[in-house]
Amino acid sequence: MPWTADEREVFYKSLALLAETLGEALSPGRMAGYVAALDDAPFGAVQIGLREALKTCKFFPKPVELRELGEESREWRKFKEAETERLLAPMRRMPARLSDDETQAHIDKLKLAVMQLAGRKRMR
To answer: Where are the domains of the chain?
Structure first.
């Protein structure tokens, strides 16, 4: 899911901070390239990647490295586990026997939870 304008602004500031810290030049074109390469990744994971890069990188990371730093981090895994539990909690309380209408309502809730976990707005 593409980032919002606010998320892009936060990303630009974070990327500029990383570039300044690592002594790297950052042109508008280069910033746009990073956004193009990363805006399909979860924004939270990329922000974690930027924070990890500030702490651990000796050289300015490529977009794929920021993605990996974020998505492979313990912090992101813990967030995803908590989010999964939150979204699936209503399904755990589902009664054993349901009417057809109740079954459809629970199926709709489950579809919504799966879509949110996948970062999509609607399921086909």
So the answer is: 5-72, 76-118
